[in-house]
């Protein structure tokens, strides 16, 4: 993937229960690399991977990453109600 694509900001950032907030596509890639093979091979994460490899629109990738994190029960929903910093 191109560095320019990897540096695009997720809309909005995605907070997870298992480690901070993902703000860019690169950070989402790093998160995927760290979640372990079992989770990474789940269909929802494979969809995210395919979208990233195709370098699709950042809004679509953001939505799919958020959905994948939610399906894994790792989305920090408390962060959704906090005002942006």
Bulk shape: globular
Spatial gap, N to C terminus: 29 Å
Strand content: 5-15%
Report on the biggest sheet: 2 strands, antiparallel
Return the string of H and E elements.
HEEHHHH
How many helices? The count is: 5
Strand tally, please?
2
Layout of helices and strands, plus pairs?
Layout: H1 3-6, E1 9-15, E2 21-24, H2 25-34, H3 37-40, H4 43-53, H5 58-71
Antiparallel strand pairs: 1-2
Helix pairs in contact: 4-5
Protein model, in words:
- By secondary structure, the protein is of the alpha+beta class.
- The longest helix has 14 residues, at 58-71.
- The protein has a two-stranded antiparallel ribbon.
- The chain has five helices and two strands; from the N terminus they run H-E-E-H-H-H-H.
Summarize the structure.
The chain is α+β, with helices and mostly antiparallel strands.
């Amino acid at each position: 993937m191109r560095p320019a694509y990897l540096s695009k900001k997720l809309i909005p950032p995605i907070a997870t229960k298992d480690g901070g907030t993902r703000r860019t596509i690169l950070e989402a890639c790093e998160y995927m690399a760290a979640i372990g093979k079992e989770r990474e091979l789940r269909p929802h994460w494979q969809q995210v991977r395919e979208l990233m490899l195709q370098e699709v629109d950042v809004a679509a990738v953001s939505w799919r990453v958020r959905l994948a994190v939610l399906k894994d029960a790792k989305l920090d929903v408390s962060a959704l109600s906090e005002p942006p910093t």
